[in-house]
């Protein structure tokens, strides 16, 4: 199984278009060693030719250009993207579906009923796509049995429901339920080796433990170092927790959680542009180095 990190940043990317926080400003000025990052997406393949796009980011076009494996050019119109799976219906995870509208075949999209509903109502991308390539939605049952997408033989996907919030435009924003947000265990059906992926991890729920114990690699929510980080960096009052993201620092934080899983490679992903871990020379990055936790970057490969 091959996993390519297409985009390692949270919504907004790094630097964010209108942001002059310490990180974004230093990157533009060239005064930090941090690297730019596009918005949250992965590609997973078993044969290096057919890929499952995991979230379709607003940066999908740039990500496909940066990763020629996704464009094998076997015909006059071609793509290596055989199907898409969505973790939620957030802007940073679904807007790229519009970029894929020139597909000659309907897009094969794996998502929960809740996500599908959002994408047919509050943010009706699936409805819009009816006028272009169309879509074939394959239902994912949150917490349901593992399944093997026919487009990617040999890949087994275990859907794991996560308690988090649906986006602001969702009809069920104020009534969270399983299926608004999920993580997945991607398993190589032949070898049993696996990666647990959860870019939006609001809280460490008990049912996640068996998946995290079993995984060879943990690729989890690295949005914010501190819960009040965005307010501190750019003002406002939005906390990481309110956005459905468990901060890294402090008691019960992601670093403490990950310290209990030393059997696995542990990688933070979906990193907000305000997060000090983006700067390789930050004190926070040294904390990660000490506990052996990695920071995802665009183009990172995970081979199992
Ligand atoms: C989130 O994960 O909370 C989203 O990235 C926020 C956004 O894109 O606006
Ligand atoms: Mn996001
Ligand atoms: Zn910023």
The tally of beta strands, per DSSP, is: 13
Strand neighbour order, sheet with most strands: 6-5-4-3-2-1-13
Work out the radius of gyration.
18 Å
**Which shape, going by the Cα principal axes?**
globular
- What's the CATH superfamily, by name? Ribonuclease Z/Hydroxyacylglutathione hydrolase-like
Overall mean pLDDT stands at: 97
The low-confidence parts are: none
Instruction: Indicate the percent of residues in helices.
Output: 10-25%
Helix/sheet category: alpha/beta
Characterization of this structure:
It is a single chain. This protein is α/β, with parallel strands linked by helices. It has a single domain (2-303), classed as Metallo-beta-lactamase, Chain A (4-Layer Sandwich), CATH 3.60.15. The chain contains ten helices and 13 strands. 48% of the residues are buried. Bound molecules: D-malate, manganese (II) ion and zinc ion (ZN). The site of manganese (II) ion has 6 residues, from loops.
Q: What key phrases describe this protein's structure?
A:
304 residues, six-stranded mixed β-sheet, alpha/beta, binds D-malate, binds manganese (II) ion, Metallo-beta-lactamase, Chain A, binds zinc ion, 10 helices
Break the fold down into its secondary structure elements and pairings.
Elements: E1 2-7, H1 22-29, E2 41-45, E3 51-54, H2 60-66, E4 81-85, H3 91-94, H4 96-99, E5 107-111, H5 113-118, H6 125-129, E6 135-139, E7 155-161, E8 182-188, E9 194-198, H7 209-214, E10 217-221, H8 229-234, H9 254-258, E11 265-269, H10 283-291, E12 293-295, E13 301-303
Parallel strand pairs: 3-4, 4-5, 5-6, 9-10, 10-11, 11-12
Antiparallel strand pairs: 1-2, 1-13, 2-3, 7-8, 8-9
Bound molecules: D-malate, manganese (II) ion and zinc ion.
Manganese (II) ion is lined by residues 10-11, 40, 90, 92, 270.
């Amino acid at each position: 199984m091959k996993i390519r990190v297409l985009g390692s940043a949270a919504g907004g990317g790094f630097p964010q278009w209108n942001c002059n926080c310490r990180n974004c400003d230093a990157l533009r000025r060239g005064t930090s060693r941090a690297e730019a990052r596009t918005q949250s997406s992965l590609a997973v393949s078993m044969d290096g030719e057919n890929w499952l796009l995991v979230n379709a980011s607003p940066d999908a076009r740039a990500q496909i250009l940066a990763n020629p494996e996704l464009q094998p050019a076997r015909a006059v119109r071609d793509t290596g993207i055989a199907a898409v799976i969505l973790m939620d219906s957030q802007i940073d995870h679904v807007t790229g579906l519009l970029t894929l509208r020139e597909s000659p075949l309907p897009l094969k999209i794996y998502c929960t009923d809740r996500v599908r509903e959002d994408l047919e109502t509050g943010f009706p991308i699936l409805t819009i796509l009816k006028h272009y390539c169309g879509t074939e939605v394959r239902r994912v049952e949150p917490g349901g049995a593992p399944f093997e997408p026919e487009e990617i033989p040999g890949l087994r996907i275990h859907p794991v429901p996560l308690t988090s919030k649906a986006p602001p435009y969702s009809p069920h924003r104020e009534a969270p339920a399983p299926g608004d947000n999920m993580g997945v265990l991607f398993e190589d059906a032949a070898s049993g080796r696996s990666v647990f992926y959860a870019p939006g991890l609001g809280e460490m729920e008990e049912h996640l433990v068996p998946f995290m114990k079993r995984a060879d690699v943990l690729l989890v929510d690295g949005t914010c170092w501190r819960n009040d980080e965005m307010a501190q960096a750019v003002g406002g009052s939005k906390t990481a927790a309110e956005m459905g993201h468990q901060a890294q620092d402090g008691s019960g934080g992601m670093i403490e959680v990950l310290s209990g899983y030393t059997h696995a490679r542990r990688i933070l992903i979906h990193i907000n542009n305000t997060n000090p871990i983006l700067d390789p020379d930050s004190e926070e990055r040294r904390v990660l180095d000490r506990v052996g936790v990695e920071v995802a970057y665009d183009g990172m490969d995970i081979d199992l």
